[in-house]
Amino acid sequence: MDKKLSPHELSIYWLEEVVIGLNLCPFAKTPYLNGLVRLIENESTLESDQLSFFLDELEHLQQIPSSELSTTLIAFVNDDNDFADFNDFVGLCEDMLIESGLEEHFQLVAFHPQFMLADIDPLHRSHWVGRSPYPTIHIIRNAEIEIALASYTDMIGIPARNEGKLLSLSEQEFDNIFYYLR
């Protein structure tokens, strides 16, 4: 399958078909369908510009009530850093959250085309739960996480369920869904 999509279209595809379509995050569908998920791209390759963009989005989220905007995904579409370097960048963003006193309000989740879970065979499909078309930071409101935790009964079972879903896909289904990373 060869689809030529813009970075924004590819990020939407990933969110709709992978994250929501495969139900890898059982909390994503409702806010997305209610228009509460913001998906934006940053085209800069300079870390200072990327950090500034991140801080601007944090400020934006603080100014808008969660009833209007629940969460933001920032795709760094021209960032060619490997997973370890991107993790370091996410660490800088987390440090900025702490320095700003916002760690009680927000937390970050990182996605990356080369995402790897620790201590798991590098070829195992479970890594694909965290693989996005571009290095991506998900800024989540802690209050939204608390609501999700209160309404979902099997938090501990999510990783095993996701792994089972990915393993149940035929090779062709897997290649079609994740065509952008093959």
Quick synopsis:
By secondary structure, the chain is α+β, with helices and mostly antiparallel strands. Helices cover 45% and strands 13% of the residues.
Report what the structure shows.
This protein has 182 residues and is α+β, with helices and mostly antiparallel strands. The chain has a domain at 46-133 and 142-160. The protein contains 7 helices and 4 strands. The chain has helices spanning 7-20, 29-33, 47-63, 83-99, 142-151, 158-168, 171-177; strands at residues 37-42, 71-76, 106-111, 136-141. Strands 1-2-4-3 form a 4-stranded mixed sheet, with helices on both faces. The longest helix has 17 residues, at 47-63.
What is the average of the pLDDT values? Answer: 93
Structural class: alpha+beta
Identify low-pLDDT runs. Answer: none
Number of helices: 7
Give a count of the beta strands, DSSP E runs of length 2 or more: 4
Radius of gyration: 16 Å
Classify the helix fraction into a percent range.
40-55%
Task: Report the major sheet.
Answer: 4 strands, mixed
Which strands sit side by side, in order, in the main sheet?
Answer: 1-2-4-3
| SSE run | HHEHEHEEHHH
Strand content of the residues, in percent?
Answer: 5-15%
Q: What's the overall geometry?
A: globular
In whole angstroms, the N-to-C terminal distance is 10 Å
